[in-house]
Amino acid sequence: MPASSVASGARPSSLCRTVAPYDLRVDLSCGNCGAHGPVKHVGRVDLKQEVEDIPEYGHITSVTQIHVYVCPACEEATVWSLVWSPDIQDEFAHRRLYPTARDRSALPERVRTRLDAALKVKKIEPGFYAVGIRRMLETVCNIEGAAGGDLFAKLDDLAAHGRIPGTLAEAAHELRKIGNLGAHDSEVDVAPEDVPAIEALAEAILEYLYRAPAQLATVRSALASRSTSVKAESP
């Protein structure tokens, strides 16, 4: 059966119930630029088909597929893995394979909002992306209680109080400068080739301030829980 040319409507976790299952209709943001809206379904690969005996339903067939969508805004591809059943017309699992999604659960909500806004223009206008990342940095400074009348002073205050090390403070200042370039009419423009470095530096700051501490807390909690269990089982 042919794959659908356009996917829109329900969330990625829902199959369209009114058309053939191969005509998936999903409402997903582009994994590259973050833009929302209809995406073009350009390909499907059927990986495998399995049959299981489930007591409540009998023999149930599960199909594993790879679906490729292209964003009309940035023209980049997003790839999803889908496991669904044609017998019960329902989905078992879905996962974005490309681009790999970063865990954002540890980021403050306002930081996520600013980051989302920047990502929406990442592949469309590098200058606007740089401005968006600069704005995200200012939000980070405000959440962290940094003192100062402008972003320059706030970043210095973060470093002075040990919230970010010297190297990351330098990275943050470079992002501030690049954001200034994007915000003003300058002879030097932010170029598409600058985007990967901007993203990497911004992610390094978010990793240090939020993701790494959250992961550390998770590991410590797991170890403490195991230690408590071992002590409880000891004679």
Number of E strands: 5
Instruction: Please identify the structural class as seen in this structure.
Output: alpha+beta
Enter the CATH topology name of the largest domain: Four Helix Bundle (Hemerythrin (Met), subunit A)
Estimated radius of gyration: 23 Å
- N-to-C SSE string, H for helix and E for strand: EEEEEHHHHH
CATH class of the largest domain: Mainly Alpha
By DSSP (H or I, 4+ residues per run), the number of helices equals: 5
Return the domain count: 2
So, the CATH homologous superfamily of the largest domain? Nucleotidyltransferases  domain 2
Q: Point out poorly predicted stretches.
A: 1-23
The largest pleated sheet is described as: 5 strands, antiparallel
What's the average pLDDT? 82
Question: How would you concisely characterize the structure shown here?
Answer:
This protein has five helices and five strands; from the N terminus they run βββββααααα. The protein has helices at 109-119, 126-143, 151-160, 166-183, 195-233, and strands spanning 6-7, 39-54, 58-70, 77-85, 90-98. Helix 2 (126-143) crosses helix 4.
